[in-house]
Amino acid sequence: MSKEEELYVQTRDKGDRVYKIIVIGDPSIGKTSLIRKFVKHQFEKDYIPTVGVSISKQPITINVGGKDVKIDLMLWDLAGQPQFFLLHKVYFNGANGVLLGFDLTRTHTYSNLKSWHAELIKDGLIDLPMVLVGNKSDLTEDRKISLAHVDHLKEQLTIPDYVETSALTGQNVDLLFETIGRRIIERNP
């Protein structure tokens, strides 16, 4: 068990409000960059693929029904490369929410969302709160996925929330994590 996994178990056992979020999608869509921007307020231009899983913890305060609720998000950044798929079931255990991401500039990452969603169904995670994430919104000239495409997919997969983000500029990064946090709190008051 890694240091991060041990921290997750220890924190959860203390009775703190800790929620495990799995962040999934194809390689190089910006999963790690989004998490780094949210947790460390940094952006790294160099692409370094995640090997297996990387875990980060970030406290967040969410206003729900006029009341501030403090929670900790344990963000599990799962490798998107096919050689790591066998590990996903283990990493999915205990998840409270899912961020399902794609790159707005690469159509195949959008098309592959159905396969990622099918994997969640196969592993019994269909009832978890999910948010679709279209990343790299700053690359407006290179955009390939329209909002109409996203709306169609949201309907097909019955995922109500969609957030467009840019890890580079920070656009909607906090909103993304607040949205999944709020959905989890609504299910676990």
TrEMBL record:
The keyword Nucleotide-binding applies. It comes from the Archaea. Coiled coil: none annotated. Signal peptide: none annotated. Keywords: Nucleotide-binding. Pfam families: Ras. InterPro entries: P-loop_NTPase (IPR027417), Small_GTP-bd (IPR005225), Small_GTPase (IPR001806). CDD domains: Rab. Gene3D superfamilies: P-loop containing nucleotide triphosphate hydrolases. This is GTP-binding protein.
